[in-house]
Write a structure and sequence with these properties.
4-stranded antiparallel beta sheet, 8 helices, homodimer, 11 strands, DNA-binding, Jelly Rolls
Chain lengths: 239, 239
DNA sequence: CGGATATTTGATCAGACTCAACAGCTGTGG
DNA sequence: CCACAGCTGTTGAGTCTGATCAAATATCCG
């Protein structure tokens, strides 16, 4: 899955766009793919705005969220490197996206994406796979929000994050083998899990008291008992 | 969007698969597309089973759901005619599907779908659009489950169902212009909205007392004040 | 009619929210 | 070096929404 460094600048970028990319196509891609940097907290895609661009994250983490008119917020997911953003059914985005930390991404206009899709046959299939993955993850999150308790939600979140860190070692620093980095604060985690920041803090305390996790410095969590975490996440441990 | 009756047996079927289908391709499609009927309550696709088939609903409504080990159930959505089921990232289905009422569908094996996708160019794009729609709807549902009250959830559900009835008039009987049909019982609605059947019943009563809806016979609801319904759905009406 | 299933209604309970106060960390400026 | 502000996270007390449990009623269908 990791492409050779030779293609374009960022391995994730070429991988995400069209897999094994040929040297002769680089020039063409460079014309339609624009690099961007976004500072933490900056919103680069807003709900209900015209969906003119697609984005592919190359580094950092992006928070995706929806808002109700009175300000209630639901974080619908986090986009990590390799993620593809910007699908919209009705011509406008259905969610907003803001950088959780320093984010690099590349932008492709709606017009150009169609050319790319037509020219790079395997790209369409890849996008289809990405969307399919994302839908599967969204459905898992529906189960979480609809039927899990606060403790189960937090355990699920930490478990999933740990899995992702396994799948993509870039997330994990060598100094903390079992540590996962949470680039978002408790407010954001709360909005993701349908809870409040107080409840997130309390449940974090419950897991810490049970020696299942421990604090590994700012923004870092050490998972000490992953089996226990997974059992809680699946509701197999009575509260 | 409605295909001509001449293509295959079901207009929805040809539309869903590959849009304007040519006469000469019908024979080929018929070889890989198998028709099926499913009785109400029957489960034809089970979570964690090998994802060997894709399905396209041609009539009726299908309930999609996920289960926790202890039996808690979350309905992740309803698949109406034209919907495409069976995407799986890890080789197994991520959810189960059972017929809500009498359902007709066609089955395409995983092997055959790849041939179809390769041969019918516009099919891949159509599937991509369907997936994109579905993801958008899933995100809307995340907002509902994470941040809306019981009343707001039910109002959202009824509002969305009404919109769908507008978009596809087949849903609506001419005898009840504003009536929508709910082919699922309160238990299923509850599992969809992350509530209990008692709460669904109570909130239905609240909307009825407020003259926003009224009962239109079994499985049928009349929406009397759609604006009010939408305002509640968006949380713009203080409880 | 009768039995099964679904819905409605009531009373009580509990998990998570709200509001409020406090602690810890970080960076800033005197 | 310390004082302080500002932000994030923690902890506590009280409240409330929706769940649970139980019973009554309604609806469907043979």
């Amino acid at each position: 899955m990791i492409a050779s460094e030779k293609c374009l600048r960022c391995p994730v970028r070429s991988t995400a766009i069209c897999g094994g990319i040929k040297q002769k196509d680089i020039a063409r891609l460079s014309k339609v793919v624009h690099d961007m940097k976004v500072a933490p907290g900056d919103c680069f895609l807003e709900q209900d705005e015209p969906a003119d661009n697609y984005f592919i994250i190359t580094s950092g983490t992006v928070t995706l969220f929806k808002l109700l008119p009175d300000g209630r917020r639901q974080v619908t997911g986090f986009a990590d490197p390799g993620h593809f953003l910007g699908f919209a059914n009705g011509g406008t985005y259905g969610f907003s996206a803001e950088a959780a930390d320093c984010v690099s991404l590349c932008r492709i206009s709606r017009r150009d994406i169609n050319v790319l899709l037509a020219d790079f046959r395997d790209m369409e299939r890849r996008v289809l796979d990405l969307l399919s993955d994302e839908l599967t993850r969204a459905q898992e999150q529906l189960l979480l929000l609809g039927r899990k308790t606060a403790l189960e939600r937090l355990a699920s979140f930490l478990s999933t994050r740990t899995e992702q860190a396994d799948a993509w070692p870039g997330y994990r620093t060598e100094s903390a083998r079992d540590g996962i980095v949470l680039p978002m604060n408790n407010d954001t985690i709360a909005d993701y899990l349908g809870l409040t920041n107080e409840t997130v803090s309390r449940m974090m305390g419950v897991l810490r008291d049970a020696r299942i996790i421990s604090r590994g410095g700012r923004n870092r969590v050490l998972v000490r008992d992953r089996d226990a975490l997974d059992r809680i996440a699946l509701g197999e441990t009575p509260v």
